[in-house]
Amino acid sequence: MSKGPGLFADIGKKGRDLLTRDYNTDHKFSISTNTLSGVALTSTVLRKGVVHAADVSTQYKYRNALFDVKIDTDSNVMTTITITEILPSTKAIASFKVPDYNSSKLEVQYFHDHATVTATAALKQNPLVDLTATLGSPTISFGAEAGYDTTSRSFTKYNFGISVTKPDKCASVILGDKADSIKASYLQHLDESKRSAAVGEVYRKFSTNENHEVLPKSIVTISGEIDTKTLDKYPRFGLSLALKP
């Protein structure tokens, strides 16, 4: 694969993962093992209050194909097949769920040194189609995303984003909800080993004039400035805090 810009879904992902990923207040127990044939098996038991859930997943890689199957206690069977280099610089991902066949979908990703393109379609008679495109480099990238409903023949979403990534920091701005909201995030690593980091995120919805309140009656605003003619220079960012009595 190329070393160009990431996918549109990667814009703001580092900060988002640090804020929300893998935080679990429930009781969880997992056991993983690998067989000599290369099959990875994982068993997980999760307790939420008085409710227990469990699943068993298996993963197997054969040449350029990766097979992932998960079975849970609700008799759901989820299968994901990922094939890399099905065409040059192209990856295909097919996912199926039994008995919910309507959730099946097919995604194709294309990677170039200066662009990435993805197309996703639900595997049903009148599918929803999602398209994304990202232009730029690993340092700075611009992206757009659109969703189209073939039944109503209307756009379900269109979003835009920009991401700036440096070795010790990254920042992103996403214009979402059909250009009705804006979300900005900034992540700063605090040491060279990148074991600790600080991240901030603000959100504003234009139609309802909603802001991101860190505390009741307190609003944070972040602004940024990027000179596209001198990308080797660091972007400038501003931070303000408004307190309401």
From TrEMBL:
GO MF term list: voltage-gated monoatomic anion channel activity
GO CC terms of this entry: mitochondrial outer membrane
Pfam families associated with the record: Porin_3 (PF01459)
Family in the record: Belongs to the eukaryotic mitochondrial porin (TC 1.B.8.1) family.
Record PANTHER family: MITOCHONDRIAL OUTER MEMBRANE PROTEIN PORIN 5-RELATED, VOLTAGE-DEPENDENT ANION-SELECTIVE CHANNEL
UniProt-recorded name of the protein: Uncharacterized protein
Species: Brassica cretica
Lineage per the UniProt record: Eukaryota, Viridiplantae, Streptophyta, Embryophyta, Tracheophyta
